[in-house]
Every structure is written in structure tokens, then in C-alpha cells.
Design goal:
- This protein has helices at residues 4-9, 25-41, 60-72, 76-84, 87-93, 95-104, 109-118, 122-134, 159-175, and strands at 14-20, 45-51, 142-145, 148-151.
- With 176 residues, it is α+β, with helices and mostly antiparallel strands.
- Strands 2-1-3-4 form a four-stranded mixed beta sheet.
- Helix 2 links the parallel strand 1 (14-20) and strand 2 (45-51).
- Helix 3 crosses helix 7 and helix 6 runs antiparallel to helix 7.
- The longest helix is centred in the N-terminal third of the chain and has 17 residues, at 25-41.
């Protein structure tokens, strides 16, 4: 029996990869666009955090690992938003700030501390960074949707509209 009838009723999901350095002020600015995109598309758009820590940001690599620990504990996006909302504080306090935010969100802060020490999430961050370099990511934020890369590192201006154009086109193609 063919599975085509159930495929037609399944909601279509697009993937938007959000290449991010969690110590990047431009990535904080991008959060408003991500919220607007989530509101517009709901479960038809899956926003995936992809790590691209920049060398110029001293705590970016540790912050990416901490975000992975938050994801493991079921609070990935709330953690990302909390950290990005306070990047200056991260710059001043360093890794202690990462554990502090975990505690504020009710996460297991001790496990965060251990994860940062034992490096259990390093391979995920390294893999994301290598993939980003391979597809031409050079700065953050960078978005990839439908195979198209949009660089927000120079300017956020017009990016949300461009993502919406691509998403609308892809969703229409999948429906028709």
C-alpha cells in the first residue's frame, strides 16, 4: 500500500539553520527576527542552532558547549536567548556566567560545570564549525534555508524578509 495519502496530510517543515556565535551582539539582534519567523510559520519552520564560535570572542566556544548542555537538559532555546540577551555580562564574567544562567533557568548547574570541564559537547561544536566553514560561513549570524546562505554578519537589514520569501516559495512548491 502506498504512503502518499498520509504524506499529503502531514505538515511540511522547513529547516532554517542559524549559524551563531553566542557571544556575538549581532546574533542577539537576530533573535527578534527568529521570534518573528517562529510566530509567522509556527511548526512549519524548524530553527536549528548551529555553532560557529568566532576566535575573537573569548568565551564563544565554552558558551556553545553550554548551549548543548542546556539542550540536553531540555532548555536549549531559553538558555540561548538568556545568554545572547546578556552578552556584555558574559564578556565580563566568563564561564561562571554560563553556570549562573543555568541556575537561573532551573537547570542542573553542577552538571553544567562538569560538562564545561569534561568537554562532553566539544565534538558537536567542532562538527558544526567545520560544516559551517565547508559551506562558506565566515561570520555570524548566517542563515541557511533551502540551500541558500544569507550572511547577517555584515547587516541584518532585509534578511528576515528574504528568509520569508524563500520559505514562502519552498512551502508553495511543496504544497503544489
Amino acid at each position: 500500500m502506498s504512503d502518499t495519502s498520509s504524506a499529503a496530510t502531514r505538515p511540511t517543515t522547513l529547516v532554517l539553520d542559524f549559524w551563531c556565535d553566542l557571544q556575538c551582539p549581532d546574533c542577539r539582534t537576530a533573535l527578534d527576527d527568529l521570534r518573528a519567523l517562529r510566530a509567522r510559520y509556527g511548526d512549519r519552520l524548524e530553527v536549528r542552532l548551529r555553532h560557529f564560535p568566532l576566535e575573537k570572542n573569548k568565551h564563544a566556544f565554552a558558551t556553545a558547549q553550554a548551549a548543548e548542555e542546556a539542550t540536553e537538559q531540555g532548555q536549549g532555546w531559553p538558555y540561548v536567548e538568556a545568554v545572547l540577551g546578556r552578552v556584555e555580562e558574559l564578556g565580563r564574567k566568563g564561564e561562571a556566567f554560563l553556570v549562573e544562567v543555568a541556575r537561573e533557568l532551573g537547570l542542573d548547574a553542577g552538571e553544567f560545570d562538569t560538562a564545561l570541564i569534561d568537554g562532553r559537547h566539544i565534538l558537536i561544536v567542532d562538527a558544526d564549525q567545520a560544516e559551517g566553514k565547508a559551506i562558506g560561513v565566515t561570520g555570524t549570524p548566517t542563515y541557511v534555508i533551502g540551500g541558500e546562505r544569507l550572511d547577517g554578519g555584515k547587516s541584518q537589514e532585509g534578511l528576515r524578509e528574504r528568509i520569508e520569501e524563500i520559505a514562502d516559495r519552498l512551502l508553495a512548491e511543496q504544497q503544489g
